[in-house]
């Protein structure tokens, strides 16, 4: 059972507003839809509830995966278990600093890369284990998460080169119908992506008003127009994750918490470290 997650410090700064929009879309709209489609659900790290017997059956978490929760969601699906999204919210702190956010997001993306590589070691067996629908759903949910932010800067660069200097090689990359499909993706699909963030925020607001829990306000909606700048941050994190996957695959960058009220964190401030194999084995 996976509870919905959202942020109590959504109004702290621009970054927390973007982060809240993203989580509202992910947990309020996307994951419930994925649950209905019955395809693998990569779990979030907070408010997961399991049967102990099932965890023991699956040998619990993978200590070498830096997003062990997402990996566990896939393994639950492979073993024939179901993951449900509970209509209940857990409120946590949104990351409010750029560098801290990059460290956190690069770890998440690296973990998705690890999860995809591990389960795709034998694609034929994976197809047999989870079926065609589960297999393609796995690609959309897990592979697309790192691939899209890795590819975005390439396409942004091509747009810049074309409108700025009319490089001749660029039209050759988009012959015939591909050009129109790419244009549709650029204008229509990106619009709906931003719109889904807005819809997620409104979904939370309407539900919170019924429960008299006004954690999120309508003021967040206008900041969705700046979402492309948030995508740039995701791409920075994705390239960092890809580099670390090669150079430091088990490096776990800790996220500093307690930054919602002041510039100084309250509580412990664990610094990034690389877990030894003995530490990993004891998790």
List the helices and strands and how they pair.
Blueprint lengths: L1 E6 L6 H24 L14 H6 L10 H11 L6 E8 L5 H22 L3 H43 L3 H4 L4 H35 L15 H21 L3 E2 L20 E2 L2 H5 L2
Parallel strand pairs: 1-2
Antiparallel strand pairs: 3-4
Structure overview:
The protein has 283 residues and is mainly alpha-helical. 60% of the residues lie in helices and 6% in strands. α1 (14-37) packs across α7, α4 (98-119) crosses α5 (123-165) and α4 packs across α8 (227-247). The longest helix has 43 residues, at 123-165. The radius of gyration is 20 Å and the shape is globular. Mean pLDDT is 90; it is low at 262-283.
Distance between the first and last residues' Cα? 22 Å
Rg computed from alpha carbons, rounded to a whole number of angstroms: 20 Å
Number of strands: 4
Oligomer: single chain
Helix content: 55-70%
Biggest sheet statistics: 2 strands, parallel
Number of helices: 9
Proportion of residues in β-strands: 5-15%
Instruction: Give start-end ranges of low-pLDDT stretches.
Output: 262-283
Instruction: Look at the structure and give the mean pLDDT.
Output: 90
> What string gives the helices and strands in order?
EHHHEHHHHHEEH
By helix and strand content, what is the structural category?
A: mainly alpha
Strand ordering within the main sheet: 1-2
């Amino acid at each position: 059972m996976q509870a919905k997650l959202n942020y109590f410090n959504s109004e702290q700064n621009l970054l927390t507003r973007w982060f809240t929009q993203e989580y509202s879309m992910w947990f309020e709209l996307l994951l419930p839809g994925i649950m209905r489609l019955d395809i693998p659900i990569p779990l979030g790290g907070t408010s997961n509830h399991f049967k102990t017997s099932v965890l023991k059956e699956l040998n619990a978490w993978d200590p070498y995966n830096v997003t062990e929760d997402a990996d566990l969601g896939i393994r639950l699906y492979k073993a024939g278990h179901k993951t449900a999204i509970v209509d209940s919210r857990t409120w946590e702190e949104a990351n409010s600093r750029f560098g801290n956010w990059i460290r956190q997001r690069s770890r998440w993306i690296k973990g998705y890369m690890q999860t995809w590589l591990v389960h795709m070691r034998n694609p034929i067996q994976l197809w047999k284990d989870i079926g065609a629908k589960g297999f393609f759903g796995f690609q959309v949910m897990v592979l697309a998460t790192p691939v899209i932010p890795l590819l975005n800067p390439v396409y942004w660069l091509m747009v810049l080169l074309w409108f700025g200097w009319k490089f001749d090689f660029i039209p050759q990359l988009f012959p015939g119908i591909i050009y129109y499909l790419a244009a549709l993706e650029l204008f229509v699909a990106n619009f709906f992506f931003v719109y889904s963030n807005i819809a997620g925020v409104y979904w939370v607001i309407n539900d919170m008003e019924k429960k008299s829990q006004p954690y999120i306000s309508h003021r967040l909606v206008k900041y969705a127009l700046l979402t492309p700048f948030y995508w740039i941050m995701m791409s920075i994190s994705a390239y960092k994750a890809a580099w670390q996957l090669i150079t430091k695959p088990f490096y776990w960058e800790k996220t500093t918490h307690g930054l919602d009220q002041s510039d100084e964190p309250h509580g412990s401030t664990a610094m990034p470290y690389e877990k030894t194999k003995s530490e990993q084995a004891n998790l």
